[in-house]
Amino acid sequence: MQLTNQLSHSAELCLDERSEASEPVQVPTLPKQAFAAQTPVQTEQGFQALSELSVGQLVLTRLGTLEPITKIEHFHFTKRQLHDMPDAAPVRFDPDALPSMTATSAVLLSADCPVSWTEDPNSLTRFPAKAFCDGGMIRRVIPEEGIHFIRLHLPSTQQICAGGIWVELDVDGTTDEARDVQVPQLVQDIRIFRPIPA
To answer: Rounded to an integer, what distance in angstroms lies between the CA atom of residue 93 and that of residue 86?
Structure first.
């Protein structure tokens, strides 16, 4: 299998600095199913930050298989861009925000990233990260330094563990819009997580 090179979507231009000219301003594409660059994922060599990974490396899936990374995309947003493009703001899961989390640091996911969640041992449902927002331990944030998102591509749709949260990466990066209307209720937790207003 031939692997593609890493891709980078350059968008370092802060919207504060745009000129008065009528030329269109380049802004980054909204990331799909992406994570903050420092998010640890389990590879053949153990846990590594996404920013350290390269095409061809093997990552561990929920099925216990090792799948090669076929492409890596980078998206950078400044603080101002996140203000102007609120849909690009990441969702922050604080440590222990979900009962299954074991991460000791916060995890930042793109708002559409499908989190695999189960209330029934016999079924597994995927909800977009934004469906979990409660304004407390899981909320939209705009980091002072902006955010560098990374999206991994694998040969087939797989679930991987990102910072202690199981997420599903679709091959083409599309998001099932029907997921937006589903809202999980945490087991043994009085809080009900509702989607944030559009």
So the answer is: 17
